[in-house]
């Protein structure tokens, strides 16, 4: 039985999962999101639909925009360190590329504040603490606000919690503070199919965790150690960003679950309930300024158009991929 998930690339080669998402890798993602993603990849592996274009992760989110002196940077979809076909397929964000755009906004003298617009189920641990540290280090200068328009789950909340302020829409959710790694044991299924695997390896622990074999206690303990290490980093970052101690994060920030907007505010996970348009208006100088005949500010109009473009592009790709 073939274990790595591969997608037909359309040019004779195969596209495999990025190393950060291989079986057993530590992930800071909504578990149900990861299950849905792997199910979609398995469907695509059948070759029933054309492969997604490998044009890089941020293409699907249309990059950042400006609204006056406010730089708006979208943190949408699945998060991974580098741009790849994987992010293009799911409509994700490269944390490395996002970091470069964030640096540019901070360095731009015409930018007075930065809005990190978040709608993400999380993703890879790799690259997440580096981006979180970058945002935390920039605090104290320009105003940095995270606006959650949907989900800020796991790695996305790890990053968003480092802003000066964090707001969530009324229907939004934040949290899923935790790290998960999954091992799948295909040995019994292989036996039923008449497949016998033999591992030839050098190095005491080389090959442990291979899905062709049951997970050993030693391998399980090593996976747990890595998960615990990343979880400790996650908790420490959130504690720093939200101005609380680690125990508060572990025991009072929904304990791995998602929190709805009102609950998140009451727990201290968010600072208030606001839409992106309301945040933009506040950053642009307060309500009542710059309103035209239609009653909406220029900032609202720009952001509304930007969000509509992003959502439309994501829907177009899903329709092209044959998913509903």
Structure description:
40% of the residues lie in helices and 18% in strands. The chain is α/β, with parallel strands linked by helices and 324 residues long. The strands form four sheets. Strands 4, 5, 8, 10, 11, 12, 13 and 14 form an eight-stranded mixed beta sheet that branches. A two-stranded antiparallel sheet has the order 1-2. The longest helix is centred in the last third of the chain and has 26 residues, at 217-242. The two termini are 29 Å apart.
Layout of helices and strands:
Layout: E1 6-8, E2 14-16, E3 27-29, H1 31-45, E4 65-67, E5 70-76, E6 79-80, H2 85-90, E7 93-94, H3 95-107, E8 113-120, E9 122-124, H4 128-138, E10 143-153, H5 155-160, E11 165-168, E12 173-175, H6 187-192, H7 217-242, H8 246-252, E13 258-260, H9 261-267, E14 272-273, H10 276-284, H11 298-321
Parallel strand pairs: 5-8, 6-7, 8-10, 10-11, 10-12, 11-14
Antiparallel strand pairs: 1-2, 3-9, 4-5, 12-13
Helix pairs in contact: 3-4, 4-7, 7-8, 10-11
């Amino acid at each position: 039985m073939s274990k790595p998930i591969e997608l037909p690339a359309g040019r004779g080669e195969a596209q495999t999962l990025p190393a950060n998402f291989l079986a057993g890798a530590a992930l800071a993602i909504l578990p149900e999101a990861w299950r849905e993603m792997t199910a979609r990849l398995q469907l695509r592996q059948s070759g029933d639909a054309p492969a997604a274009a490998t044009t890089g992760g941020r293409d699907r989110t249309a990059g950042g925009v400006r609204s006056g002196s406010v730089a708006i940077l979208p943190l949408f979809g699945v998060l991974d360190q580098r741009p790849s076909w994987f992010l293009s397929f799911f409509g994700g964000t490269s944390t490395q590329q996002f970091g470069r755009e964030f640096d540019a906004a901070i360095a731009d003298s015409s930018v007075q504040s930065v809005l990190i617009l978040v709608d993400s189920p999380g993703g890879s641990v790799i690259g997440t603490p580096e981006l979180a540290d970058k945002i935390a280090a920039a605090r104290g200068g320009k105003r940095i606000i995270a606006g959650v328009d949907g989900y800020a789950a796991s790695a996305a909340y790890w990053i968003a919690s480092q802003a000066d302020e964090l707001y969530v829409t009324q229907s939004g959710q934040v949290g899923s503070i935790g790290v998960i790694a999954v091992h799948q044991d295909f040995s019994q299924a292989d036996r039923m199919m008449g497949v016998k695997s033999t591992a030839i390896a050098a190095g005491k622990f080389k090959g442990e965790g291979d899905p062709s074999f049951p997970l050993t206690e030693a391998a399980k303990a090593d996976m747990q150690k890595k998960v615990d290490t990343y979880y400790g980093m996650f908790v420490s970052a959130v504690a720093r960003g939200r101005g609380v101690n680690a125990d508060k994060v572990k025991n009072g920030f929904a304990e791995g679950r998602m929190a709805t907007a009102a609950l998140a505010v009451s727990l201290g996970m968010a600072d208030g309930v606001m839409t992106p348009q309301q945040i933009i208006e506040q950053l642009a100088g307060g309500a009542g300024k710059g309103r035209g005949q239609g009653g909406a500010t220029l900032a609202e109009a720009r952001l509304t158009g930007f969000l509509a473009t992003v959502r439309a592009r994501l829907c177009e790709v899903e329709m092209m991929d044959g998913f509903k």
